Amino acid sequence: MVFFLLDTINEIYGRKHARNVILIGSLSLLFASLFIYLSINLSSIDQGSGEHYNFVFSNLPYLFVINALCLLLADGINNSIYSRMKLYSNGNFLLLRCLISIVFGQFLYSVIWILLFFGAELGWRELLGYVFSNYLFKLLYSFFVCIPLTFSTVIFIRYFFFNRAVIR
Description:
Blueprint: H1 2-13, H2 15-40, H3 47-57, H4 60-88, H5 94-118, H6 124-162
Helix pairs in contact: 1-2, 1-4, 1-5, 1-6, 2-4, 4-5, 5-6
């Protein structure tokens, strides 16, 4: 869904605003990671519940740091490709811009996330299988949910807030 939001922000407000959303999102994930890490390392009154709490939340700080990195890199690439295509196409071909930027952004996101989160635990064959299945799921989800949602949202915003429903 982040790609949908970024493409919509980029289309309506421009690349700089979308880049700011990426930076704010990454910083938010890093702060959440820090506070979860700190809360895991606090002493617990009840030793039994502390173990359960640590079991549930122990991987979250690392997962949030990985997602912050993915957000910076993959969403940054998605944003850059989208805005360059918007410039070169004179604002035309919204669906094509969404499609191409998502294809590259989702691939990079899948590779970074899978390699960093599972890289030490799995062999290359399993890692490639995870990357491929994760990427395929994200592409299908993007094609059937995110791209139509981006298109509809851009039309809605342009029509109701800017009084121009032109999509090229």
